[in-house]
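I have been asked to look over a protein record a colleague put together. What it holds is a sequence and that sequence's fold in token form. Please read both lines and tell me whether the tokens look consistent with the sequence. I do not need a full report, just your reasoning and any doubts. This is what I was given:
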Amino acid sequence: MVEFLSAAEIQDGLMTAYLGQNLYYQPEMPSTNDEARRLAEEGAPEGTLVITDYQSAGRGRFERRWHASAGSSLLLSLLFRPVLAPDQAQYLTMICALAVLDAIEAELGLRAGLKWPNDVVLAGEKLGGILTETGLKAEWLEYVIVGLGLNVNLEPDELPGGMLVPATSLSRVLGRRIDRRPLLWSFLQAVERRYERFKVGVGPVGEWGRRLHTLGEQVVVRSGDEVIAGLAEAVDLHGALLVRQADGRLRRVL
């Protein structure tokens, strides 16, 4: 049985000052990121939340299709209007990724981790992904949209074959169905708390780096048209991955 969200129920449980208070919900839409971009360009305020139960054209990095059956996942996008240069947009990805981990641990007692650059993982399997997109005005960000897809009650067997990383869901791990609303409320509260700390100079990079399961692993990563293989040693202050190749060279991968 599909359990749909509702705007009234979401708003009723919000514990934030502004994040999610401007709410746009539809049971189905092509892409929450696309809808958030439309709203951003129409002047929607910072903190706007776009959320749905089903995306007919959801996507991840490199325009890969994002698959999730109706009512199975948290599918949402948040709109930020930070005073940042374009190469600093990754900080918003980090803040939201850490907030996902906060919410999973607070509500369900599970300690998930991150796979560089934008996956949420548990025991080596993918729980979710983050897609960050930007709008520019001159040399500054006009807005940043952070999209999240989190597998809550998804059955991984429903997904198509050939996925790059094996998928799991919170319900699969815990063996029971999970109410998505407390996770959503906890996530939004954690994002707002972390974002406010960021505004006064508390950066997310150190903590984000410590939660990356990628570090210390042999990796093969794509940078533009180039494929780079080696040991993932660290991340730098902008979130780029530092990879030590077999010839000893240290490569910086954005």
